[in-house]
Amino acid sequence: MGVYDWLFYEFEKEEIFYFLISHLLHKYGMILKKELTNCAEDIEKACSYMEENFAKHISLNELCNHIGMSKSTLLRAFTKSKGVTPYCYLENVRVSKAKNFLEQGVALSEVAQMTGFSDQSHFTNYFSRFIGISPKTYREIFLCKENKKYESK
User: DSSP letters along 30-80, please?
Assistant: First the structure.
């Protein structure tokens, strides 16, 4: 695993760590009483930030600094609001953008680079796990549909 791959997983690992700490504190007596109801605007700001910067390496720290919220509060509020963790949300954004590029016929290596993956292999493995088919197959499905449109005219 390269340095960039490690950085890619850093966000997810840190997120899991903070969820574990939060769970342990809640379960073993230190109930976290911070109200999460007034966080909707901050959560939307975090979503916008991830949508605008999906191709870059985003850390949990960077995201928290951007919206002015602690890590544990962000994780709890984000998950409560969106039903997924911030990292999972970022993964969804990246895959969604990748699907758009693939539908346009962009080369796999370019899609990998444009969506923040370290290389084509990493992108292919991740996309296949997330969508259930390889990015090459996904792209070919759309390219075949486009060719059939032009052939029928």
Answer: -------TT-HHHHHHHHHHHHHSTTS---HHHHHHHHT--HHHHHHHHHH
How do residues 48-84 score in pLDDT, each as one tens digit?
999 999 999 899 999 999 999 988 889 888 988 999 9
Q: Which residues of 30-68 are buried (b: 16+ CB within 10 A; e: fewer)?
A: eeeeeeeeebeebbebbbebbeebbeeebebeebbebbe
Stated pTM of the model: 0.73
Q: Which residues are within 8 A (CB) of 12 and not within 5 positions of it... i.e. 6 or more apart?
A: 87
